[in-house]
Inverse folding.
């Protein structure tokens, strides 16, 4: 189910529509450590809106993450064709680190990137295909 996606044209304004992604980008720009799962979520979502070079540059501002680490994480996420995580998965991951991935614990949609962002059709197609295969496997 790997996606064959080329590097997108920069759409950072679109990415800013997500409170969570704006929160992560601001933290990275400020040189904060957003944690392992924060970095993972950032790449899984941002790769559909920003070119690789921009993602790597932002991640490299994290004091606990080098440029080489950022390149490796980006390559891993892209090679596996990971879709952006659902809100419940992000909240699970957030519990495993200190940095708050979600900007607001009280807002149930704060980490739901599918509510605020429009991804390429291939993302939605892959999700649909995954659930179809799962239903078939259970039959």
């Amino acid at each position: 189910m790997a996606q064959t996606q080329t590097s997108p044209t920069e759409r950072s304004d679109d990415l800013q529509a997500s409170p969570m992604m704006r929160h992560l980008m601001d933290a990275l720009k400020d040189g904060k450590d957003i944690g392992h799962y924060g970095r993972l979520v950032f790449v899984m979502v941002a790769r559909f809106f920003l070119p690789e070079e921009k993602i790597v540059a932002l991640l490299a501002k994290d004091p606990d993450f080098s440029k080489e680490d950022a390149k490796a994480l980006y390559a891993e996420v892209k090679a596996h064709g990971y879709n952006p995580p659902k809100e419940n998965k992000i909240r699970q991951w957030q519990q495993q680190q200190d940095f708050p991935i979600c900007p607001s614990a009280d807002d149930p949609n704060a980490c739901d990137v599918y509510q605020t962002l429009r991804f390429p059709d291939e993302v939605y197609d892959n999700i649909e295909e995954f659930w179809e295969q799962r239903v078939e496997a259970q039959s």
